[in-house]
Amino acid sequence: MIKLRYAALPALALLMSSCVSDEAVFTDGRIEDVCNSAIPVCATRAACILQGDEFYRSEFPGGVRMIVRSETETAKLIVRVLLTEPIFPGTEFRVQAHTPGCGQFDEGVAIDVDLFEFFGDDRTVEYELDIPGRGDHLLEVFSDMSSTYLLTTELVE
């Protein structure tokens, strides 16, 4: 009887390792920020200051405004989105990162496409945006699709 119990351990370990969800892999130990503030930036309001060790969970259609802080004059912002419960694809997805003075922005856009096809089988998309200047950068994400999603950012300075 003891031999059977130990023989089952590798099978149990394999079964447990397959229980890791796409969401857990995507967020990779980050802490959820509920983004329920109203922080003035660029003549509008941001819901939070999203840091690299945090993630945001919400749903489309609609959008969110948040702040990402940079400590250097030149940086890249990597924005990743994972669709968790896709319902209707929509045709517009937009990510914009503004300079601290809000005079310029870099953006990633998908328009007039089936967004579920655009996000692919892994249901993720990634944009790399230039964010020049030290300080607070307004990040705006908008889509007309219907889906819950997770969002992470990574600053490459």
Protein topology:
Blueprint: H1 2-7, H2 9-17, H3 22-27, E1 31-32, E2 39-41, E3 44-46, E4 54-70, E5 76-88, E6 92-98, E7 105-111, H4 115-119, E8 124-130, E9 135-156
Counting structural domains, the number is: 1
Count, helices: 4
Unreliable spans: 1-16
Q: How helix-rich are the residues, as a percent range? A: 10-25%
Distance between the termini: 58 Å
Structure description:
The chain has 157 residues and is α+β, with helices and mostly antiparallel strands. The protein has a single domain, classed as Jelly Rolls, CATH 2.60.120. The protein is 17% helix and 52% strand. It has 4 helices and 9 strands; from the N terminus they run H-H-H-E-E-E-E-E-E-E-H-E-E. The strands form 2 sheets. Strands 1, 4, 5, 6, 7, 8 and 9 form a 7-stranded mixed sheet that branches. A hairpin with a 6-residue loop joins strand 6 (92-98) and strand 7 (105-111). The longest helix is centred in the N-terminal third of the chain and has 9 residues, at 9-17. The radius of gyration is 19 Å and the shape is globular.
